[in-house]
Amino acid sequence: MFVSDILAYKGNRVVSVAPQDSLAAAIATLAARRIGALLVLDADEAIAGILSERDVLHAVAREGAQALNRTVSEVMTGTVVTCDPDASIEQIMETMTERRFRHLPVVQQGRLCGMISIGDVVRLRLEEQRREADALREYITAA
Ligand code: AMP
User: Fold this and answer.
1) How confident is the model over 115-133, as pLDDT tens digits?
2) Are 47 and 105 in contact (CB under 8 A)?
3) Ligand 1: residues whose CB is within 6 Å?
């Protein structure tokens, strides 16, 4: 199974914010979309960073409610790790575990084509295991 299999059911839409947006506006988007991270795109649609709920948490822990007036660029992670649609699910699980994050933008030949979360990976692995168990059951009962 590959990242492209996740994108096949999930689609290519990526929810993004601009670096100059306020943290309060970004939090409203996270809540409205029920997601855990936003990609930060600059005026040329290039990836400028990633803002996850973890970044919000740390900013508020540091500064309290004042943090809500910060811009996204002040709070986001600026160096973004991305993956290719051809990457295997095992590779993605390894990257997320080693780097300790739960989101990966998908980029193919410089073009943004989706965003996957650890939740998407777990869902695909569960489906895969269910299919394997069904196939085994069928094999055993047919024997
Ligand atoms: P997360 O576990 O995804 O909520 O993120 C934990 C931390 O890693 C936060 O500081 C995020 O900004 C950062 N982060 C999340 N995804 C990525 C990524 N793909 N590349 C770089 N940093 C990331």
Assistant:
1) 999 999 999 999 989 998 8
2) yes
3) 36-37, 50, 52-55, 77, 80-81, 101-104
Q: What is the pLDDT of residues 54-107, one digit of tens each?
A: 999 999 999 999 999 999 999 999 999 999 999 999 999 999 999 999 999 999
d(CA 75, CA 85): 28
Q: Is the pTM of this model over 0.90?
A: yes
Q: Where are the domains of the chain?
A: 3-142
For the domain made up of 3-142, the CATH class stated in words is: alpha beta
* From 16, 54, 93, mutation site for ligand 1 pocket: most ligand atoms within 8 A of C-beta: 54
Specify the length of the chain in residues. Answer: 143
Separation between Cα atoms, residue 11 and residue 124, nearest integer Å: 14
Run of H or E residues at 108 = strand 103-108
> Residue 93: enclosing H or E segment and its boundaries?
helix 89-99
Instruction: Give residue 139 CA to ligand 1 midpoint distance, Å.
Output: 42
